[in-house]
Amino acid sequence: MAIAKLALQDGTIFTGTAFGSSAEIAGEVVFNTAMSGYQEVLTDPSYAGQIVVMTYPLIGNYGVNEADVESRRPWVSGFVVRESARRPSNYRSEGDLGGYLEANGIPGIEGIDTRALVRRVRMHGAMPAILSAVDLDDESLRAKAKALQGMAGQDLVRDVSCEEPYDWTVGEPREFATSGERPSVTYRVAAIDCGIKRNILRLLWDAGFEVRVFPAKASMAEIREWKPDGLFLSNGPGDPEPVTYVADTVRGLIDEGIPTFGICLGHQILALACGAKTYKLKFGHRGGNQPVKDLATGKVEITSQNHGFAVDRESLGAAGLELTHLNLNDQTVEGFRHRELPAFAVQYHPEASPGPHDSRYLFSRFRALIEAGRE
């Protein structure tokens, strides 16, 4: 079996077995604590530019299938697991994980001590690395890793966003979060694609929205011309600060009073558009087990998350924003609302995929915000 190596920017090297594509890539090493949902992780555009380490030891046991993809292709740069299952067992399986990675040109490494790797990331922070099944010289790999740029300052939204607007017309109907059926009255929602996931689109559909997806580069005039009832800001990869073109568009639309809902990167961009600040987390939040408290109700939600940046809590007040949700692990901002304008956002993923469904009520809350503005 072929050898592969993972070289971190701090000089640490892990040697294991290659699977997937025999290639060499660079990316930021991050870890995900989910026990399942690896295909949704691979195809989440928020992971663009990253080498993802799965903390659960056996990955690939139920194979892969076309129904579980969250976007048009996998976006991770590389994939790290303790053990890759080569004989998947599931009635929905259409192939194995290694073959899926190989078909999409993504290198993987298995057989390394993923616990030691995750501990290093927790202690020293997410960092750039080289994953290679081509160059196996330690000093060469260290030199390449040392020269890499970190995630801060990178605009990756341009790489993952759609090129032209499109209507979400074909989606699997899912059970609506509160009523059990899709509302008969629909509203138009313009979704800005910073790396949008398909399950977000499904749940917007479930909530009774007619959705048109706009590229991140779309102007305020283009979006306004469609006459939407609401604005949705999607998840996405990278640092929110360089994505000024989206923040500028959002600023203009929310000033006009259009009801707005943001998720993940959309949460950060909405904060920046209002005048708040963001910063890079040491190792981020990635997995399906993050506890978040809704400060209005006192309820604690177990949430799915995938982000490496956060909104600065101290900057909310001056931006006219009010904290609504708090991460109980590290007290970081998980949600806010505007004090005067119909706009709110959460840092986590209420659409899950993978993850718990505790937070799907937020899509109903978005609909209620739009309905209140039409009364």
Distance between the termini: 66 Å
What portion of the residues fall into strands of 2 or more residues?
A: 25-35%
Low-confidence stretches: 171-179
Q: How many separate domains? A: 2
What order do the helices and strands follow? EEEHEEEEHEHEHHEEHEHEHEHEEEEEH
Q: Give the count of helical stretches.
A: 10
Provide the CATH superfamily of the largest domain: Class I glutamine amidotransferase (GATase) domain
Looking at CATH, which topology of the largest domain would you report?
Rossmann fold
Which CATH top level class of the largest domain fits? Alpha Beta
Shape: globular
- Overall structural class, as computed from helix and strand content, comes to alpha/beta
Give the C-alpha Rg.
20 Å
The share of residues in helices is 10-25%
Number-wise, the strands total 19
Supply the CATH architecture of the largest domain. 3-Layer(aba) Sandwich
Mean pLDDT: 95
- Main sheet strand line-up: 10-12-11-13-14-19-18-17-15-16
Quick synopsis:
The chain has 375 residues and is α/β, with parallel strands linked by helices. It folds into two domains: 3-146, Carbamoyl-phosphate synthase small subunit, N-terminal domain (Glucose Oxidase, domain 1), CATH 3.50.30; 157-374, Class I glutamine amidotransferase (GATase) domain (Rossmann fold).
